Amino acid sequence: MQSDRQSDRTGPDSTPPLAFAAVILANVALAFGPLLVRMADTGPVAAAFWRITLAAPVLALVALISPARPRRPGKGQAGLWALLLIGGIAFAGDLGSWHIGIRQTTMANATLFGNSATFIFPLYGFLIARTWPSRSQGIALILAAVGAGLLMGRSYQVDPRHLVGDLMCVLAGILYALYFILMARVRTTMPPIPALAWSTLASIVPLFVFAVVLGERVWPGHWSALILLALGSQIIGQGLMIYALGLLSPLVVGLALLVQPIVATAIGWIVYDERLALPDLVGVAMVAVALVLVRRGSTVAKPGDRDDG
């Protein structure tokens, strides 16, 4: 795939500014997801089902009216459609397991484990896509790891009552990284909105079946939280994320996921009056520095990887 062979050019202007802004804004939008899941009056997997189902018609319509329309399966495209199908199923598994975990563990634990793709996806870039880090990127990765530990370490609790929730969030993080890997490969040949539309459609049935098997309440009494979840997390959040996946290295995308714990910490402070301590502020500062460093030292996809087809 073309995106597996990143350019060797580095420097302050290497990362497309629009793509970097998109991945930051995507994570800001996605950080509100746990709050909305807890506000929903359906089961956790059912909330994920409605997030996908309410967003799917909007994404399909945008994809159909855009110049780069979704192509029908044809000769030589079996691999592409297999990636989309598996990616959609992986995303369904990610959402379902994460939403269960959100309601069975602390917000801090859910955010920490659910975003373990922060380090899994860059590892894919290093070992498989062979996008090796520069010196500044290596420093950024270390700063991000320490900063994330400081940010989440104070509120993380080892509690047997949270074990199932913690494990579900770890599973979600692994499946999220798999989804990123698959969709990054899809993005080498398909523009962002069609790619997101097809993978979203592939997630609907698995989530519905999962919710029914678990015996969850599927039909909501109130729609506001679910509509906001579909709009903010799936249409805006994942839309911007899939766009950025076609233009940024796995390291940049992975480290940008740490924006979510930062925003989640701010939400906890504002909504739940969770006071910030010095380690929290130092952790936020270290993650911010890491993002600046990885922005300056990252690679850009080749021109052939862009959204002109």
Query: What is the general shape?
Result: globular
Share of helix among residues? 55-70%
Largest sheet: none
Q: How many runs of DSSP E, i.e. beta strands? A: 0
Taking Cα atoms only, what radius of gyration do you get, to the nearest Å? Answer: 19 Å
Look at the helices and sheets and give the structural class.
mainly alpha
Per DSSP, the total helix count is 13
| Weakly predicted, low-confidence segments | 1-13, 299-309
Quaternary structure of the protein: single chain
Strand content: under 5%
User: What pattern of helices and strands is seen along the backbone?
Assistant: HHHHHHHHHHHHH
Q: Average pLDDT across residues?
A: 80
Distance between the termini: 15 Å
Account of the protein in words:
By secondary structure, the chain is an all-alpha fold. It contains 13 helices and no strands. It has helices at residues 17-30, 33-39, 44-65, 78-104, 107-114, 117-127, 135-153, 163-186, 192-213, 224-245, 250-256, 259-271, 278-296. Helix 3 crosses helix 10. The radius of gyration is 19 Å and the shape is globular. Residues 1-13 and 299-309 have low confidence and may be disordered.
Short description:
This protein is mainly α and 309 residues long. It is 70% helix and 0% strand. The protein is globular.
List keywords for this structure.
single chain; mainly alpha; disordered N terminus; DMT family transporter; transmembrane helix
Write the layout of secondary structure elements.
Layout: H1 17-30, H2 33-39, H3 44-65, H4 78-104, H5 107-114, H6 117-127, H7 135-153, H8 163-186, H9 192-213, H10 224-245, H11 250-256, H12 259-271, H13 278-296
Helix pairs in contact: 1-10, 2-10, 3-4, 3-9, 3-10, 4-8, 4-9, 5-8, 5-12, 6-8, 6-11, 7-13, 9-10, 11-13
